[in-house]
Fold this sequence. Notes:
The protein is of the alpha+beta class. Helix content is 30%, strand content 36%. It has a 22-stranded mixed beta sheet that branches. Strand 8 (287-291) and strand 9 (294-305) form a beta hairpin. The chain crosses the membrane at residues 76-96. Residues 1-20 are annotated as: Disordered.
Amino acid sequence: MNDETNRQNHESTEKSINKINEGEAVKIEEFIDKKKKNTEINVESNSEVKSNSDVTDNTFNGNLQQKKLGKRNKKAIIAIVSTVVILIALVSIFVINNPKAKVIKAFKATSEELSSRKTFFEQATGEKEFLKVYDKGLSQEIEMNVISSNIKGLEEAHNSGFKCTSAIDSENKKALIGLSAKYQGKEMGSFNVYTDNKKMMIKLPSIHSSWFAFDCENIQDQYNSSIFGQQGILPNDEITLRMFGDDDIPTYDELKKVLVEGYLKSHEDDLLEISKNITFKKLDKSKEIMVNGENQKCKGYDVLIPKTEVNKFLSSIYDYIENDEEARSILNRYFKNIKVVSAVENKNESSDSFNNLEKFITCLKNDFNVNDISLKVYIDKKGRAVGIDMDTTLNMKEDTLKINSSIEYKGKDNIGDDIDISMVLDESGIPTNVDMNLKRVDEGFSTENILSGKVTRAGEIVNIDCNTKYDTESKKVNGKFKFGTNGSEMSLDYNGKYECNKENQYLKFDFDKININMNKNTSNTNEYITFDLSYGRMPLSVPVEEPKEEKIDIFKIDENKLMQIYLEIEQNSNNLKRTLSL
């Protein structure tokens, strides 16, 4: 729940991708120039850098959770490895020489054009790095009220909801959170939490006046050795509740400097040697791609990265991570905070696990390799890479994953304003087809983002549609999401406004109405819930301090104190019931 995570949830994925591409361009070009002098290679004057696929300003939150290995974990491996494969292909292109400079220049032109598009936060605030003001800490408030619903159990929940306020002091690893609820307009009570990452304190003001405190780590041991444990002990599985990691999650700038720039600098010779075995040739046939509203015959270039060179590249990455102290440190910080994937159900079970860097690298080294990577790059008359096809196969311990992908940039004002993506992922003979189109329409002060996609696997079809729009003059925002499969569909639509105060960096969203509809084909029912929602945040103005009221170490009390607490809670609970007429 640190602010780095909050910020990542709001920043667009396109910004991160394009920022990496743009940043690495400078490093790669310097590297190529240096090697040209050393090896007297005759390289054309036009040198270039890579671009990756763009996405809309809309991002979706995705928190990594602990899961069991097996089939489910293979999906995680596939996602990670697929990313690595793309990086292999594109980064390898960066270090190659002579005629390949034309392709490099085309990638750079595409990257620069994609990165020139402003995100919502840039347009709304006029600042590129606006969200960084929340890095050290923030105050935030969220409130939700149900308007109407026909979902079972919520039919009478009109004018019911909650309000949550929080002060998150990321710099000092402290937090103070307050939560209150109401039902049909009547206050149901409140709940407060404080933590300094060593101890946690909980208070229920409506039923008791004191804070109940306990240590954040090994809660099960505290419980079992207390008076509560006499009634039955908890299983001997560690229960730890900490809001912040021991170390902060590495920032984008840290990851870029250590993992990308550090790797390129330390493995220049390896990369140059690998590049010598990459074949490059101009294709005989052009490809027609609609760019800027007209069909263009785009010249094609074929890049083949042999399997041996791909795996040399991977080995050089493993070598860098295993032997560079700074790289190991920053990755361990990352793995420690996200708690990637764990397969160990008990301490005696011997199984591969991704809960630390060493086991993750061991898995990558032993459990898969990559076949040849074939890239076809199509360049338009303006010298931009507007079409990229990729074909390769990942060989894992028990499965293979064939990847065939195609991406075309077709926008008018900016080639990233209309993107077609097509992928076929064949996992051990079972294909998954992914087709997606991303559009962005800028008109005056308004920006509309449209995503439409379809995923097909084993006869099942999943349709995804998303449309969002915001206006920086009227401050209005609205959108609709639809997700459908096997005749059932879930949709969400919203409308509201936002405000941004540049002086105190206050940012707030007010949604007058959010509708969620669930059409279940199997039961022929249509369930819905409608509610309003507001969310605001601003930088933390003062550090979070521990509450001064009376504290009770809840796992250290005796029978007399327990009875005293019980009687106070019972009396206050009865008063609350009478107030609510229950």
